[in-house]
Amino acid sequence: MTTIAVIIALVALLVLLAIKTPVAIALGVSGALGLILLQGFGFAGNVLGSTPFSDTANYSLTIVPMFILMGMFAVRANLAEQVFAIASRVARRAPGGLGVATVMACAGFSAVSGSSIGTAATMSKLAVGEMRRHGYPAHFAAALVAVAGTLGVMIPPSTFLVLYAILTQQSVGQMLAAGIIPGLLSALAYTIYIMARGRKLTTSADASLASVSAKAHTDAAQLRGLRSKSSVASGTTATATVDAPAQQPAGDTTPWRELPWRGAIRVVILFAIVLGGMYSGFFTSTESAAIGAVAALVILIIENRKKGFKAVLAAFRSALQDTGSTTAMVFMIIVGSGILSTFFIAARVPDTITSAVAGMGLPPMLTMALLLVCLIPLGMVLESLSILVITVPILYPIAIELGFDGIWLGILIVKLIEIGMVTPPVGINVFVVAGTSGVPSETVFRGVTPLFFVDLAVVTLLFLVPQISLFLPGLVASTAG
User: Fold this and answer.
1) Which of 102, 215, 430, 455 could connect to 127 by a Cys-Cys bridge, CB 3.0–4.6 Å?
2) 336 near 25, Cβ under 8 Å?
3) Which residues touch 335 (CB under 8 Å, ≥6 apart)?
4) DSSP string spanning 256-311?
5) How far apart are CA 104 and CA 64, in angstroms?
6) pLDDT tens for residues 374-396?
7) Rounded-to-integer distance, Cα 222 and Cα 9, Å
8) Higher pLDDT, residue 413 or 134
Protein backbone atom coordinates (compact mmCIF):
# COMPACT_ATOMS: atom_id res chain seq x y z
CA MET A 1 0.00 0.00 0.00
CA THR A 2 2.85 2.37 0.80
CA THR A 3 4.41 1.97 -2.64
CA ILE A 4 1.05 2.50 -4.34
CA ALA A 5 0.44 5.65 -2.29
CA VAL A 6 3.84 7.07 -3.24
CA ILE A 7 3.26 6.34 -6.93
CA ILE A 8 -0.23 7.89 -6.88
CA ALA A 9 1.03 10.99 -5.07
CA LEU A 10 3.89 11.49 -7.54
CA VAL A 11 1.60 10.98 -10.54
CA ALA A 12 -0.86 13.48 -9.05
CA LEU A 13 1.97 15.98 -8.59
CA LEU A 14 3.11 15.63 -12.21
CA VAL A 15 -0.45 15.90 -13.55
CA LEU A 16 -1.15 19.03 -11.50
CA LEU A 17 2.08 20.63 -12.68
CA ALA A 18 1.32 19.63 -16.28
CA ILE A 19 -2.02 21.45 -16.19
CA LYS A 20 -0.23 24.52 -14.79
CA THR A 21 -1.59 24.35 -11.25
CA PRO A 22 0.33 26.75 -8.96
CA VAL A 23 3.34 24.90 -7.59
CA ALA A 24 2.43 25.40 -3.91
CA ILE A 25 -1.06 23.97 -4.45
CA ALA A 26 0.28 21.05 -6.50
CA LEU A 27 2.71 20.13 -3.74
CA GLY A 28 0.10 20.41 -1.00
CA VAL A 29 -2.65 18.52 -2.83
CA SER A 30 -0.40 15.64 -3.88
CA GLY A 31 1.02 15.38 -0.35
CA ALA A 32 -2.47 15.44 1.17
CA LEU A 33 -3.66 12.76 -1.24
CA GLY A 34 -0.73 10.55 -0.29
CA LEU A 35 -1.41 11.04 3.44
CA ILE A 36 -5.08 10.14 2.97
CA LEU A 37 -4.17 6.94 1.13
CA LEU A 38 -1.50 6.07 3.69
CA GLN A 39 -3.00 7.09 7.05
CA GLY A 40 -6.59 8.11 6.44
CA PHE A 41 -8.51 11.39 6.58
CA GLY A 42 -7.95 11.96 10.30
CA PHE A 43 -4.17 11.99 10.12
CA ALA A 44 -4.19 13.99 6.89
CA GLY A 45 -6.50 16.56 8.47
CA ASN A 46 -4.19 16.98 11.44
CA VAL A 47 -1.20 17.52 9.12
CA LEU A 48 -3.09 20.03 6.98
CA GLY A 49 -4.16 21.90 10.10
CA SER A 50 -0.75 22.07 11.75
CA THR A 51 1.77 22.29 8.90
CA PRO A 52 0.99 25.88 7.75
CA PHE A 53 1.82 27.14 11.22
CA SER A 54 4.59 24.75 12.24
CA ASP A 55 6.55 25.16 9.00
CA THR A 56 6.35 28.96 8.89
CA ALA A 57 6.32 30.01 12.56
CA ASN A 58 10.09 29.98 12.61
CA TYR A 59 11.93 33.14 13.63
CA SER A 60 14.83 32.23 11.37
CA LEU A 61 12.56 32.53 8.33
CA THR A 62 12.20 36.29 8.89
CA ILE A 63 15.58 36.62 7.20
CA VAL A 64 13.90 35.68 3.89
CA PRO A 65 11.59 38.72 3.50
CA MET A 66 14.36 40.99 4.80
CA PHE A 67 16.80 39.87 2.10
CA ILE A 68 14.05 40.12 -0.52
CA LEU A 69 13.20 43.64 0.66
CA MET A 70 16.85 44.67 0.55
CA GLY A 71 17.07 43.48 -3.04
CA MET A 72 13.89 45.34 -4.02
CA PHE A 73 15.24 48.58 -2.53
CA ALA A 74 18.58 48.02 -4.31
CA VAL A 75 16.82 47.63 -7.68
CA ARG A 76 14.99 50.90 -7.22
CA ALA A 77 18.17 52.66 -6.13
CA ASN A 78 19.62 52.04 -9.64
CA LEU A 79 22.54 50.02 -8.24
CA ALA A 80 22.43 47.60 -11.18
CA GLU A 81 22.79 50.41 -13.74
CA GLN A 82 25.68 51.95 -11.84
CA VAL A 83 27.52 48.66 -11.40
CA PHE A 84 27.05 47.83 -15.09
CA ALA A 85 28.42 51.23 -16.13
CA ILE A 86 31.59 50.64 -14.12
CA ALA A 87 31.95 47.03 -15.30
CA SER A 88 31.61 48.05 -18.96
CA ARG A 89 34.37 50.62 -18.50
CA VAL A 90 36.68 48.19 -16.72
CA ALA A 91 36.22 45.37 -19.25
CA ARG A 92 36.16 47.51 -22.39
CA ARG A 93 39.50 46.23 -23.79
CA ALA A 94 38.96 42.55 -23.01
CA PRO A 95 37.83 40.16 -25.76
CA GLY A 96 34.06 40.03 -25.50
CA GLY A 97 34.32 43.02 -23.16
CA LEU A 98 30.61 43.80 -22.96
CA GLY A 99 29.83 40.16 -22.19
CA VAL A 100 32.48 40.17 -19.47
CA ALA A 101 30.99 43.40 -18.12
CA THR A 102 27.56 41.74 -17.98
CA VAL A 103 28.91 38.85 -15.89
CA MET A 104 30.74 41.28 -13.60
CA ALA A 105 27.60 43.37 -13.14
CA CYS A 106 25.45 40.29 -12.45
CA ALA A 107 27.93 39.13 -9.81
CA GLY A 108 28.07 42.58 -8.23
CA PHE A 109 24.32 43.08 -8.21
CA SER A 110 23.77 39.55 -6.86
CA ALA A 111 25.70 40.63 -3.78
CA VAL A 112 22.80 42.86 -2.78
CA SER A 113 19.77 41.40 -4.53
CA GLY A 114 19.82 37.78 -3.29
CA SER A 115 17.52 36.90 -6.19
CA SER A 116 18.25 35.16 -9.46
CA ILE A 117 15.03 36.27 -11.13
CA GLY A 118 15.52 39.86 -9.97
CA THR A 119 19.09 39.91 -11.24
CA ALA A 120 18.11 38.41 -14.60
CA ALA A 121 15.17 40.79 -15.08
CA THR A 122 17.17 43.89 -14.17
CA MET A 123 20.29 43.01 -16.15
CA SER A 124 18.35 41.97 -19.25
CA LYS A 125 16.98 45.52 -19.42
CA LEU A 126 20.51 46.89 -19.32
CA ALA A 127 22.69 44.39 -21.13
CA VAL A 128 20.84 42.45 -23.83
CA GLY A 129 20.07 45.46 -26.01
CA GLU A 130 23.59 46.80 -25.47
CA MET A 131 25.22 43.56 -26.58
CA ARG A 132 22.97 43.16 -29.60
CA ARG A 133 23.73 46.68 -30.81
CA HIS A 134 27.40 45.94 -30.29
CA GLY A 135 27.17 42.96 -32.64
CA TYR A 136 26.59 40.04 -30.26
CA PRO A 137 24.18 37.37 -31.57
CA ALA A 138 20.76 37.61 -29.95
CA HIS A 139 20.86 34.03 -28.67
CA PHE A 140 24.20 34.56 -26.94
CA ALA A 141 23.40 37.96 -25.44
CA ALA A 142 20.12 36.81 -23.91
CA ALA A 143 21.47 33.43 -22.78
CA LEU A 144 24.45 35.06 -21.07
CA VAL A 145 22.18 37.29 -18.98
CA ALA A 146 19.94 34.32 -18.10
CA VAL A 147 22.89 32.17 -17.00
CA ALA A 148 24.84 34.95 -15.26
CA GLY A 149 21.61 35.92 -13.49
CA THR A 150 21.65 32.56 -11.70
CA LEU A 151 24.58 33.87 -9.65
CA GLY A 152 21.87 35.48 -7.50
CA VAL A 153 21.07 32.13 -5.88
CA MET A 154 24.71 31.41 -5.00
CA ILE A 155 26.40 34.69 -4.07
CA PRO A 156 25.20 35.90 -0.65
CA PRO A 157 22.75 37.12 0.44
CA SER A 158 21.09 34.14 -1.26
CA THR A 159 17.55 33.20 -0.27
CA PHE A 160 18.16 29.63 -1.44
CA LEU A 161 21.21 29.20 0.79
CA VAL A 162 19.28 30.63 3.74
CA LEU A 163 16.37 28.25 3.18
CA TYR A 164 18.73 25.29 2.85
CA ALA A 165 20.41 26.25 6.12
CA ILE A 166 17.04 26.46 7.87
CA LEU A 167 15.81 23.16 6.40
CA THR A 168 18.95 21.30 7.49
CA GLN A 169 19.71 23.18 10.74
CA GLN A 170 23.03 24.40 9.35
CA SER A 171 24.56 27.72 10.34
CA VAL A 172 23.15 30.49 8.13
CA GLY A 173 26.41 32.43 8.41
CA GLN A 174 28.54 29.46 7.35
CA MET A 175 26.14 28.59 4.54
CA LEU A 176 26.28 32.11 3.11
CA ALA A 177 30.08 32.13 3.41
CA ALA A 178 30.20 28.84 1.52
CA GLY A 179 28.51 30.44 -1.48
CA ILE A 180 31.11 33.16 -2.04
CA ILE A 181 33.94 31.19 -3.68
CA PRO A 182 31.66 28.91 -5.80
CA GLY A 183 29.75 31.99 -6.95
CA LEU A 184 32.92 33.81 -7.96
CA LEU A 185 34.25 30.62 -9.54
CA SER A 186 31.11 30.38 -11.68
CA ALA A 187 31.48 34.02 -12.73
CA LEU A 188 35.13 33.39 -13.59
CA ALA A 189 34.21 30.34 -15.69
CA TYR A 190 31.65 32.37 -17.67
CA THR A 191 34.23 35.11 -18.16
CA ILE A 192 36.89 32.72 -19.44
CA TYR A 193 34.41 31.22 -21.90
CA ILE A 194 33.38 34.66 -23.17
CA MET A 195 36.98 35.82 -23.57
CA ALA A 196 37.91 32.59 -25.34
CA ARG A 197 35.15 33.22 -27.88
CA GLY A 198 35.38 37.00 -27.69
CA ARG A 199 36.67 37.71 -31.18
CA LYS A 200 34.06 35.46 -32.77
CA LEU A 201 31.07 36.74 -30.83
CA THR A 202 30.60 40.17 -32.37
CA THR A 203 29.54 40.82 -35.92
CA SER A 204 30.61 44.46 -35.79
CA ALA A 205 33.91 44.51 -34.02
CA ASP A 206 34.63 48.11 -34.98
CA ALA A 207 31.58 49.52 -33.21
CA SER A 208 32.56 51.52 -30.18
CA LEU A 209 30.95 50.94 -26.82
CA ALA A 210 30.56 54.69 -26.48
CA SER A 211 28.26 54.94 -29.50
CA VAL A 212 26.38 51.88 -28.35
CA SER A 213 25.79 53.36 -24.92
CA ALA A 214 24.78 56.72 -26.36
CA LYS A 215 22.14 55.10 -28.54
CA ALA A 216 20.92 53.00 -25.61
CA HIS A 217 20.62 56.14 -23.51
CA THR A 218 18.47 57.79 -26.20
CA ASP A 219 16.28 54.71 -26.59
CA ALA A 220 15.82 54.45 -22.82
CA ALA A 221 14.84 58.12 -22.59
CA GLN A 222 12.22 57.67 -25.30
CA LEU A 223 10.92 54.51 -23.67
CA ARG A 224 10.66 56.22 -20.29
CA GLY A 225 8.65 59.02 -21.89
CA LEU A 226 6.23 56.59 -23.50
CA ARG A 227 5.80 54.58 -20.29
CA SER A 228 5.38 57.74 -18.25
CA LYS A 229 2.47 58.79 -20.47
CA SER A 230 1.04 55.30 -20.29
CA SER A 231 1.26 55.23 -16.49
CA VAL A 232 -0.49 58.61 -16.17
CA ALA A 233 -3.23 57.51 -18.54
CA SER A 234 -3.84 54.23 -16.72
CA GLY A 235 -3.32 55.54 -13.20
CA THR A 236 -0.82 52.77 -12.40
CA THR A 237 2.76 52.71 -11.22
CA ALA A 238 5.14 50.20 -12.80
CA THR A 239 7.49 48.27 -10.58
CA ALA A 240 11.25 48.42 -10.90
CA THR A 241 11.43 44.89 -12.17
CA VAL A 242 9.69 45.92 -15.36
CA ASP A 243 10.60 49.60 -15.69
CA ALA A 244 13.16 50.81 -18.16
CA PRO A 245 16.37 51.65 -16.36
CA ALA A 246 16.69 55.23 -15.22
CA GLN A 247 20.35 55.39 -16.10
CA GLN A 248 22.19 53.65 -18.87
CA PRO A 249 25.82 52.65 -18.50
CA ALA A 250 28.55 54.94 -19.60
CA GLY A 251 30.67 54.21 -22.62
CA ASP A 252 34.26 53.15 -22.79
CA THR A 253 35.55 56.73 -23.19
CA THR A 254 34.00 58.06 -20.00
CA PRO A 255 36.70 59.40 -17.67
CA TRP A 256 37.20 57.26 -14.61
CA ARG A 257 36.26 60.07 -12.26
CA GLU A 258 32.89 60.52 -13.99
CA LEU A 259 31.80 56.92 -13.55
CA PRO A 260 29.03 56.29 -10.96
CA TRP A 261 31.38 54.99 -8.29
CA ARG A 262 28.72 55.63 -5.68
CA GLY A 263 26.98 52.47 -6.92
CA ALA A 264 30.02 50.28 -6.30
CA ILE A 265 30.58 51.89 -2.91
CA ARG A 266 26.97 51.28 -1.92
CA VAL A 267 27.15 47.62 -2.98
CA VAL A 268 30.27 47.20 -0.84
CA ILE A 269 28.55 48.94 2.08
CA LEU A 270 25.49 46.67 1.91
CA PHE A 271 27.64 43.56 1.52
CA ALA A 272 29.79 44.64 4.48
CA ILE A 273 26.76 45.38 6.65
CA VAL A 274 25.14 42.01 6.00
CA LEU A 275 28.16 39.70 6.08
CA GLY A 276 30.55 41.84 8.12
CA GLY A 277 28.00 42.44 10.84
CA MET A 278 27.07 38.76 10.88
CA TYR A 279 30.59 37.38 11.04
CA SER A 280 31.90 40.01 13.45
CA GLY A 281 29.26 39.04 15.98
CA PHE A 282 27.63 42.48 16.09
CA PHE A 283 24.40 41.12 14.57
CA THR A 284 22.68 37.81 14.21
CA SER A 285 21.94 36.67 10.66
CA THR A 286 18.34 37.89 10.94
CA GLU A 287 19.38 41.24 12.40
CA SER A 288 21.97 41.76 9.68
CA ALA A 289 19.32 41.15 7.01
CA ALA A 290 16.99 43.69 8.63
CA ILE A 291 19.74 46.30 9.01
CA GLY A 292 20.79 45.66 5.40
CA ALA A 293 17.21 46.35 4.29
CA VAL A 294 17.18 49.62 6.25
CA ALA A 295 20.53 50.61 4.71
CA ALA A 296 19.17 49.83 1.22
CA LEU A 297 16.15 52.02 1.98
CA VAL A 298 18.45 54.89 2.94
CA ILE A 299 20.36 54.42 -0.34
CA LEU A 300 17.07 54.43 -2.27
CA ILE A 301 16.04 57.71 -0.61
CA ILE A 302 19.42 59.34 -1.28
CA GLU A 303 19.46 58.22 -4.92
CA ASN A 304 15.91 59.39 -5.65
CA ARG A 305 15.75 62.47 -3.44
CA LYS A 306 15.99 64.89 -6.39
CA LYS A 307 12.92 63.33 -8.00
CA GLY A 308 10.75 64.46 -5.12
CA PHE A 309 8.87 62.91 -2.25
CA LYS A 310 6.20 61.30 -4.44
CA ALA A 311 8.79 59.43 -6.50
CA VAL A 312 10.51 58.13 -3.36
CA LEU A 313 7.17 57.10 -1.88
CA ALA A 314 6.16 55.33 -5.11
CA ALA A 315 9.46 53.41 -5.18
CA PHE A 316 9.06 52.49 -1.50
CA ARG A 317 5.48 51.33 -2.02
CA SER A 318 6.29 49.21 -5.07
CA ALA A 319 9.23 47.62 -3.24
CA LEU A 320 6.93 46.62 -0.39
CA GLN A 321 4.34 45.24 -2.81
CA ASP A 322 6.89 43.16 -4.70
CA THR A 323 8.40 41.93 -1.44
CA GLY A 324 4.99 40.94 -0.13
CA SER A 325 4.04 38.99 -3.24
CA THR A 326 7.43 37.25 -3.48
CA THR A 327 7.45 36.38 0.23
CA ALA A 328 3.91 35.00 0.01
CA MET A 329 4.95 32.80 -2.91
CA VAL A 330 7.98 31.50 -1.01
CA PHE A 331 6.00 30.71 2.13
CA MET A 332 3.18 29.06 0.20
CA ILE A 333 5.73 26.74 -1.43
CA ILE A 334 7.25 26.04 2.00
CA VAL A 335 3.81 25.02 3.31
CA GLY A 336 3.01 22.88 0.25
CA SER A 337 6.39 21.17 0.32
CA GLY A 338 6.02 20.64 4.08
CA ILE A 339 2.86 18.64 3.48
CA LEU A 340 4.52 16.58 0.74
CA SER A 341 7.64 16.06 2.88
CA THR A 342 5.48 14.85 5.77
CA PHE A 343 3.99 12.27 3.43
CA PHE A 344 7.43 11.19 2.24
CA ILE A 345 8.57 10.74 5.85
CA ALA A 346 5.40 8.86 6.79
CA ALA A 347 5.92 6.61 3.77
CA ARG A 348 9.59 6.16 4.82
CA VAL A 349 10.81 7.28 1.39
CA PRO A 350 14.18 8.62 2.67
CA ASP A 351 14.83 5.40 4.61
CA THR A 352 13.88 3.28 1.62
CA ILE A 353 16.21 5.21 -0.68
CA THR A 354 19.03 5.06 1.86
CA SER A 355 18.64 1.28 2.23
CA ALA A 356 18.49 0.80 -1.53
CA VAL A 357 21.59 2.91 -2.05
CA ALA A 358 23.50 1.08 0.68
CA GLY A 359 22.50 -2.26 -0.83
CA MET A 360 24.01 -1.32 -4.19
CA GLY A 361 27.49 -1.45 -2.69
CA LEU A 362 28.70 1.53 -4.72
CA PRO A 363 31.45 3.87 -3.46
CA PRO A 364 29.97 6.80 -1.51
CA MET A 365 31.23 9.38 -4.03
CA LEU A 366 29.63 7.57 -6.95
CA THR A 367 26.41 7.10 -5.00
CA MET A 368 26.22 10.79 -4.18
CA ALA A 369 27.05 11.74 -7.75
CA LEU A 370 24.18 9.61 -9.11
CA LEU A 371 21.71 11.14 -6.66
CA LEU A 372 22.81 14.68 -7.45
CA VAL A 373 22.63 14.10 -11.21
CA CYS A 374 18.93 13.35 -10.74
CA LEU A 375 18.42 17.03 -9.89
CA ILE A 376 19.12 18.04 -13.49
CA PRO A 377 16.04 16.32 -15.03
CA LEU A 378 14.01 17.54 -12.05
CA GLY A 379 15.00 21.06 -13.03
CA MET A 380 13.39 20.44 -16.41
CA VAL A 381 9.92 19.94 -14.92
CA LEU A 382 9.90 21.62 -11.48
CA GLU A 383 10.32 25.20 -10.30
CA SER A 384 13.68 25.81 -8.60
CA LEU A 385 12.42 26.55 -5.08
CA SER A 386 10.23 23.45 -5.21
CA ILE A 387 13.25 21.31 -6.05
CA LEU A 388 15.07 22.67 -3.01
CA VAL A 389 12.32 22.08 -0.48
CA ILE A 390 11.35 18.66 -1.87
CA THR A 391 14.78 17.10 -2.37
CA VAL A 392 16.69 18.41 0.65
CA PRO A 393 14.72 16.34 3.22
CA ILE A 394 15.52 13.26 1.09
CA LEU A 395 19.13 13.90 0.05
CA TYR A 396 20.44 15.43 3.25
CA PRO A 397 19.98 12.34 5.51
CA ILE A 398 21.54 10.15 2.83
CA ALA A 399 24.55 12.44 2.47
CA ILE A 400 25.11 12.57 6.23
CA GLU A 401 24.76 8.78 6.45
CA LEU A 402 27.42 8.43 3.76
CA GLY A 403 29.75 10.76 5.65
CA PHE A 404 29.50 13.91 3.50
CA ASP A 405 29.44 17.48 4.79
CA GLY A 406 26.01 19.16 4.83
CA ILE A 407 27.35 22.55 3.71
CA TRP A 408 29.16 20.99 0.75
CA LEU A 409 25.94 19.21 -0.22
CA GLY A 410 24.01 22.49 -0.03
CA ILE A 411 26.37 24.24 -2.43
CA LEU A 412 26.08 21.38 -4.93
CA ILE A 413 22.28 21.31 -4.70
CA VAL A 414 22.01 25.07 -5.18
CA LYS A 415 24.47 25.00 -8.09
CA LEU A 416 22.45 22.26 -9.79
CA ILE A 417 19.30 24.30 -9.15
CA GLU A 418 21.07 27.17 -10.94
CA ILE A 419 21.41 24.91 -13.96
CA GLY A 420 17.73 24.00 -13.72
CA MET A 421 16.81 27.67 -13.88
CA VAL A 422 18.03 27.84 -17.50
CA THR A 423 17.12 24.29 -18.61
CA PRO A 424 14.07 23.72 -20.84
CA PRO A 425 11.17 23.50 -20.59
CA VAL A 426 10.73 25.27 -17.21
CA GLY A 427 13.92 27.42 -17.20
CA ILE A 428 12.40 30.38 -15.35
CA ASN A 429 15.37 32.70 -15.95
CA VAL A 430 15.12 32.13 -19.69
CA PHE A 431 11.47 33.18 -19.75
CA VAL A 432 12.22 36.22 -17.59
CA VAL A 433 14.96 37.37 -19.97
CA ALA A 434 12.84 36.58 -23.02
CA GLY A 435 9.96 38.60 -21.61
CA THR A 436 12.04 41.65 -20.74
CA SER A 437 14.35 41.68 -23.78
CA GLY A 438 11.98 40.64 -26.55
CA VAL A 439 14.18 37.72 -27.63
CA PRO A 440 12.10 34.54 -28.24
CA SER A 441 12.51 31.96 -25.48
CA GLU A 442 13.53 29.23 -27.94
CA THR A 443 16.34 31.50 -29.14
CA VAL A 444 17.53 32.01 -25.56
CA PHE A 445 17.46 28.27 -24.88
CA ARG A 446 19.63 27.71 -27.95
CA GLY A 447 22.25 30.08 -26.58
CA VAL A 448 22.23 28.46 -23.16
CA THR A 449 23.64 25.13 -24.40
CA PRO A 450 27.41 25.94 -24.33
CA LEU A 451 27.07 27.75 -21.00
CA PHE A 452 25.26 24.68 -19.66
CA PHE A 453 28.44 22.66 -20.17
CA VAL A 454 30.50 25.42 -18.51
CA ASP A 455 28.25 25.07 -15.46
CA LEU A 456 28.62 21.28 -15.50
CA ALA A 457 32.40 21.70 -15.42
CA VAL A 458 32.08 24.00 -12.37
CA VAL A 459 29.78 21.51 -10.61
CA THR A 460 32.25 18.70 -11.28
CA LEU A 461 35.08 20.75 -9.79
CA LEU A 462 33.01 21.62 -6.70
CA PHE A 463 32.11 17.95 -6.30
CA LEU A 464 35.66 16.67 -6.60
CA VAL A 465 37.25 19.43 -4.48
CA PRO A 466 34.98 19.98 -1.45
CA GLN A 467 37.47 22.39 0.12
CA ILE A 468 36.44 25.04 -2.42
CA SER A 469 33.06 25.20 -0.71
CA LEU A 470 34.26 24.50 2.84
CA PHE A 471 37.25 26.83 3.14
CA LEU A 472 35.40 30.02 4.11
CA PRO A 473 32.84 28.25 6.37
CA GLY A 474 35.82 26.73 8.18
CA LEU A 475 37.29 30.18 8.75
CA VAL A 476 33.94 31.45 10.00
CA ALA A 477 33.58 28.51 12.38
CA SER A 478 37.13 28.91 13.72
CA THR A 479 36.60 32.66 14.21
CA ALA A 480 33.32 32.07 16.03
CA GLY A 481 34.96 29.44 18.15
Assistant:
1) 102
2) yes
3) 24, 28, 51, 52, 55, 56
4) GGGS-HHHHHHHHHHHIIIIIHHHHTSS-HHHHHHHHHHHHHHHHHHHHGGG-HHH
5) 25
6) 888 887 777 788 888 888 888 99
7) 52
8) 413
